[in-house]
């Protein structure tokens, strides 16, 4: 004889209804199991959630979230409609808490359980909130992460670069940077291992003279060469078609020399060539500084991202947009490196893959 069991979840208790009073040994085992389940079931816990906007002053707030309160409010106004919960039932997480949770995750590089404890929510809820906010920010790409193609915009870019070292017609500085990730697993995992022997995504970026990202490509494995990424990018095709007039890009010697991409002279023989290299390297320097500020602001890009690859790609784009918003809003700038350390960083960044130093 079969028995019908209906489990009803109500007020965190499980009530068992049995359609017949006679129980077999198997039925008794089921009843004992459910009784144990009732006793071991955890009660729902609501943790206290700090109001971080009022708890911390401006400096302490920036140290924890890497953006000022003013800039966070600007970003919130842009995405609040996309992340807000439809109701306030069950202690719904507010858009402000979601935003600060995501910024804490990006600024610290900690696990979700750690940043969840910081805000006062469970790690599974923290993961959902972080992904919701990252998607909403990435959807702002067409507004904050575009390469200008109008005459006025290109002229402004050229004037900005010309003021650095009098290198004409430059509309962008081009380079790639490795963002560390965990092993993605699968048959193609080793394609993400780069020449430095860690797993990464090789991110291509073009920046302006004021350290703002103009274009970013975050879909290539760590083993991909910089020049290969550029040749297969949409921005390269646009330069091939002449969409940017006489504008040129500056890059290191890892790229091929073309009419729209200028690289340093590897073997310097005359003072004029020496002067050319010096001007080219100084004018290209903003891309190295942009990567430095970007990774110092969002530590997760330097210490490693523990997410799926497709989520990691969205995270990279979202952090680039956040960086651009901070630049536009003239947010707090991280302290500059000392002169000696800045020179050492530039020296390392100007070394080609074959070990040849671009600087004469």
Notes on the protein architecture:
By secondary structure, the chain is α/β, with parallel strands linked by helices. It folds into two domains: 58-143, no CATH class; 145-349, no CATH class. Helix content is 49%, strand content 12%. The protein has helices spanning 25-40, 52-55, 58-65, 69-83, 95-108, 112-119, 123-138, 141-144, 151-165, 226-231, 234-240, 271-297, 300-303, 309-328, 339-349, and strands at 5-10, 13-18, 170-180, 200-207, 213-221, 248-250, 261-262. The chain has a five-stranded mixed sheet with strand order 5-4-3-6-7. It has a two-stranded antiparallel sheet with strand order 1-2. Helix 5 crosses helix 6 (112-119). It is elongated and about 90 Å long. It starts with a strand and ends in an 11-residue tail after the last helix. Residues 1-23 and 345-360 have low confidence and may be disordered.
Number of domains: 2
Q: C-alpha Rg, in Å?
A: 27 Å
Contiguous uncertain segments of 5+ residues: 1-23, 345-360
Report the end-to-end length measured between terminal Cα atoms. Answer: 91 Å
Protein name: Putative nuclease HARBI1
Subcellular location: Cytoplasm; Nucleus
Pfam families: DDE_Tnp_4
GO molecular function: hydrolase activity; metal ion binding; nuclease activity
Task: Provide a concise account of the structure shown.
Keywords: Cytoplasm, Hydrolase, Metal-binding, Nuclease, Nucleus. The chain is an alpha/beta fold and 360 residues long.
């Amino acid at each position: 004889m079969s028995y019908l069991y209906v489990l009803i979840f109500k007020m965190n208790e499980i009530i068992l209804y049995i359609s017949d009073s006679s129980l077999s040994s198997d039925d008794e085992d089921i009843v004992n199991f459910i009784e144990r389940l009732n006793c071991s079931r955890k009660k729902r816990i609501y943790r206290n959630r700090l109001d971080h906007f009022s708890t911390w002053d401006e400096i302490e707030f920036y140290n924890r979230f890497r953006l000022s309160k003013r800039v966070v409010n600007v970003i919130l106004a842009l995405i609040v409609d996309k992340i807000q919960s439809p109701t306030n039932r069950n202690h719904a997480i507010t858009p402000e808490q979601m935003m600060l949770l995501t910024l804490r995750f990006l600024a610290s590089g900690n696990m979700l359980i750690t940043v969840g404890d910081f805000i006062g929510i469970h790690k599974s809820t923290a993961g959902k909130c972080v992904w919701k906010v990252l998607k909403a920010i990435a959807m702002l790409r067409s507004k904050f992460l575009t390469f200008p193609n109008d005459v006025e915009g290109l002229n402004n870019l050229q004037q900005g670069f010309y003021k650095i070292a009098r290198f004409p017609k430059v509309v962008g500085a081009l380079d790639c940077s490795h963002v560390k990730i965990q092993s993605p697993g699968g048959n193609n995992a080793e394609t993400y291992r780069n020449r430095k022997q860690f797993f990464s995504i090789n991110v291509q970026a073009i920046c302006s003279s004021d350290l703002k990202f103009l274009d970013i490509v975050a879909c290539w494995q760590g083993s991909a060469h910089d020049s290969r990424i550029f040749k297969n990018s949409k921005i390269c095709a646009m330069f091939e078609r002449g969409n940017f007039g006489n504008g040129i890009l500056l890059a290191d010697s890892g790229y091929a020399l073309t009419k729209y991409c200028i690289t340093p002279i590897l073997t310097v023989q005359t003072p004029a060539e020496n002067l050319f290299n010096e001007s080219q390297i100084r004018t290209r320097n903003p891309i190295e500084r942009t990567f430095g500020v970007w990774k110092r602001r969002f530590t997760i890009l330097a210490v490693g991202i523990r997410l799926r690859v497709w989520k990691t790609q969205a995270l990279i784009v979202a952090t680039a947009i956040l960086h651009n918003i901070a630049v536009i809003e003239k947010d707090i700038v991280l302290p500059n490196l000392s002169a000696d350390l800045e020179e050492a960083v530039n020296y390392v960044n100007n070394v080609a893959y074959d070990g040849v130093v671009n600087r004469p």
